[in-house]
Amino acid sequence: MESSRSLEHVLSMQGGEDDASYVKNCYGPAAALALSKPMLTTAINSIKLTEGCSSHLKIADLGCAIGDNTFSTVETVVEVLGKKLAVIDGGTEPEMEFEVFFSDLSSNDFNTLFRSLDEKVNGSSRKYFAAGVPGSFYKRLFPKGELHVVVTMSALQWLSQVPEKVMEKGSKSWNKGGVWIEGAEKEVVEAYAEQADKDLVEFLKCRKEEIVVGGVLFMLMGGRPSGSVNQIGDPDSSLKHPFTTLMDQAWQDLVDEGLIEEEKRDGFNIPVYFRTTEEIAAAIDRCGGFKIEKTENLIIADHMNGKQEELMKDPDSYGRDRANYAQAGLKPIVQAYLGPDLTHKLFKRYAVRAAADKEILNNCFYHMIAVSAVRV
């Protein structure tokens, strides 16, 4: 599962529409999208369009996943572009067509995505034509100079692979005892940082080829504050991030109960890294071809902050809700590694741990970084 090739076949948000699906648990990305919408609008307005070029514009949403968030993003882009084109055409409604590419790994639940899409754009009120493009955004996905707007929302924190150094048993970079890097040894974090930098540069090189000069690249990704050594900048939030304390405890429960060996636990690592604005800017500068228009660090309130009373009245229900939130992003890769039965046991223990964790009552905040850039 650790190699980029194998990870591409199992990494996805949880499909379907049940209680543990991404569709039902995408609160965090939705909040980030709402906060970044003004910046996205400004970015789209910065696109360099000239009279006569408005007949066919191409938009790509990379790492689109499933659910309303991807449609909301695309609708914002199409709406803003439509108004901009109307101004260029002297205030009249231009004869324009938009083509939107929804792209994600082949493991993504495209069936659910396109069932939802059909309900939203079907009929005479169709605002755009849609197509699906499976594949990793760390590789080329489109012909040269084809795209006018590229957005990627809450996806670039996912790496192309777990760093090979982290999987070297007994080495300084070996992430023994944990499944993510919060609180890990500095060598582990450095290995992740190196992989994250390599991945972002590869992403940018591909987009540099695909986006027309004057086109827009808008990126929204999980991040951390400048100068922060820890992945989760807020000490309080670090206790409650779905990848941290509760996750490590649930895996340790499986070990303690004899359901898996320690070596099995140590072989699983979550391929996520939160960059700083400086790390992002350095990658863009090294790649070339883009001019940063704006960068913003967004602070996102956890959707569970308002559920203190619920936890006190029904902690079991609260625990299940927390476990569903974690499963929405992690279940596919966990299940590919452990199988269905052990995966069920893992998240059941996660729910029990969450129900008993009173520390989770305190307010929790996460950081997202938004970057708008123009292809030059």
From TrEMBL:
Keywords: Magnesium, Metal-binding, Methyltransferase, S-adenosyl-L-methionine, Transferase. InterPro entries: MeTrfase_7, MeTrfase_capping, SAM-dependent_MTases_sf. Signal peptide: none annotated. SUPFAM superfamilies: S-adenosyl-L-methionine-dependent methyltransferases. Pfam families: Methyltransf_7 (PF03492). GO terms for biological process: methylation. One of its GO terms (molecular function) is methyltransferase activity. This is SAM dependent carboxyl methyltransferase. It comes from Arabidopsis suecica (Swedish thale-cress). The lineage of its organism: Eukaryota, Viridiplantae, Streptophyta, Embryophyta, Tracheophyta.
